[in-house]
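Sequence in, structure out. Go.
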Amino acid sequence: MRHTINLDCKTHYVKKDGTFPILLRVSLNGEQDYFNTGYRIQEIEYDKEKKAIKKGIKGAGRYNQIIDSQKVRIQKIIDEFDRNGELASISRLKEKYLEETGGPKSKCFYDFVGNRIEWERTHTKIKPSTFRFIDVQFEKLKKY
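Output:
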């Protein structure tokens, strides 16, 4: 299975504060797509020619750790597909990646919120009383 995972930043998605998203461009068997890490950097912190975070700037090590951990996560998913003998595609990879990171799994707002609450319930240490409050508010929102 041929694949590459590279850092890429969509510099044309610059916000007013001068930041743009840190993305990973994943190519898998001739298909490619972008995976958002959820982090943003300043334009001056990104080397467009090398497609890397500039060395010597504050926080470069942290950004590189984030990028490396996301690359490892994607690589593990690809390895899992390979180990199980499953046919890997970008869409299946992205679905699995979002499932693991708690990203949206549905285009319906209520499904998204419900899934996110369940993900938070199993992956975080939020108090049960907080979840009771969240559940009540979510039900009110659905009735509205």
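Check: The mean pLDDT is 82. Residues 3 and 89 are 10 Å apart (CA to CA).
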